[in-house]
């Protein structure tokens, strides 16, 4: 599932945003302005996901979900509250869509005839190079 499919579900109505002061460098801006944005989305009470989707999200994102069943994401990298709000919303869609995406199962294949022949030819060539090194004698002979 891609993030565009999720945006069509109108999830923003159930987002709960809270702000606080960010840490780290930034001078007076950090000390005075609440730019850190925390997004909370209650997975238990939402009707926008099916029960099976909720189960997958709970299983795959268990480290980001608290005891009340809220998915919590934080953004504090930008200097403005608005940009952090935008960033955390995008992060939500990416994280949830990644959790709901079913990975494609790998199909095992066998090497082709041509690749087998090529491998054997390379081995023969390598062996011949080593054989030529042995036959020449090199520095072991006295003059």
Written account of the structure:
The chain is an alpha+beta fold and 143 residues long. The protein has a domain at 3-100: 2-Layer Sandwich (Double Stranded RNA Binding Domain), CATH 3.30.160. It has five helices and three strands. The chain has helices spanning 3-7, 28-32, 51-60, 81-100, 113-136; strands at 15-20, 36-42, 70-75. A three-stranded antiparallel beta sheet has the order 1-2-3, covered by helices on one side. The longest helix has 24 residues, at 113-136. 11% of the residues are buried.
Task: Tell me the number of strands.
Answer: 3
Number of DSSP helical runs: 5
* Broad structural category: alpha+beta
| CATH class wording of the domain at 3-100 | Alpha Beta
In what order do the strands lie side by side in the largest sheet? 1-2-3
Descriptors for this entry?
single chain; 143 residues; alpha+beta; Double Stranded RNA Binding Domain; three-stranded antiparallel β-sheet; 45% helix
Architecture blueprint of SSEs:
Blueprint: H1 3-7, E1 15-20, H2 28-32, E2 36-42, H3 51-60, E3 70-75, H4 81-100, H5 113-136
Antiparallel strand pairs: 1-2, 2-3
Short recap of the structure:
This protein has 143 residues and is α+β, with helices and mostly antiparallel strands.
